[in-house]
Design brief:
By secondary structure, this protein is of the alpha+beta class. Helix content is about 40%, strand content about 25%. The strands form three sheets. The protein has a four-stranded antiparallel beta sheet with strand order 1-8-3-6. Strands 2-7-4-5 form a four-stranded antiparallel beta sheet. Strands 9-11-10 form a three-stranded antiparallel beta sheet. The longest helix is centred in the middle third of the chain and has 27 residues, at about 95-120. The mean pLDDT is about 85.
């Protein structure tokens, strides 16, 4: 049933309130899923990397797309069109359980995001994001190509994100290798920052 779809960088895949075309699986590239407020302010809900899915909630629930999706770099997706997907869903209990598990993980992710916004300051949010992205290891990670999208995802301004990364670097917790790549030097120290305990200078 899958249809291969290719999208150039900055190509809109669908808009908020469009009819849901089906479930998308990212094969290559990066997709930004975001909401736009009436005043034009953008909030990035998540950035979907290869292996990730999007539009599954609307496809399963049978409602219009609750957010917009845009390719952030040249991207290849597999689209499972809505009607064939729903027919298979009605027949395959294993697929239903797999999708429920995936959706439960997304609920957990969004609860964590809400906790970040409500309970953590800028340092805590960025530290938590870096740990989550790296799997809690001292490792090298790549930030999204557009830092403003990461800032929006964390409910920060671009300037605040840059200042926060600089402060974490000056505290010897991370290394900024270039514009996109970061090496975590002290995962335990970052965990303390994520928990609200910034190490003393």
């Amino acid at each position: 049933m899958a249809q291969i779809r290719t999208f150039d960088r900055r190509r809109l895949i669908f808009q908020q309130d469009d009819p849901c075309p089906g479930l998308f699986i990212v094969g290559e590239g990066l997709v930004k899923v975001y909401n736009l407020a009436a005043g034009g302010k953008e909030h990035v809900l998540h950035l979907v990397e290869p292996g990730g899915t999007f539009a599954e909630v609307a496809a399963i629930g049978g409602f219009d797309c609750p957010a917009s999706a845009e390719a952030m770099e040249p991207t290849i997706c597999a689209l499972l069109p809505l009607e064939p997907f729903k027919r298979v869903l009605a027949e395959d209990h294993g697929l239903c359980l797999g999708l429920l598990t995936g959706m439960a993980k997304w609920v957990r992710h969004f609860v964590g995001l809400m906790e970040d916004i409500v309970l953590r300051d800028a340092l805590g949010r960025v530290a938590h994001y870096l740990l989550d992205t790296s799997g809690g290891r001292s490792d090298q990670i790549a930030l999204p190509a557009m830092k403003k999208d990461l800032a929006s995802h964390l409910n920060l301004t671009s300037e605040t994100l840059s200042r926060t990364l600089r402060r974490l670097t000056e505290s010897d917790l991370i290394d900024l290798l270039d514009g996109r790549h970061i090496r975590i030097k002290d995962a335990e120290g970052l965990r303390s920052v994520a928990d609200g305990m910034f190490p003393e200078s």
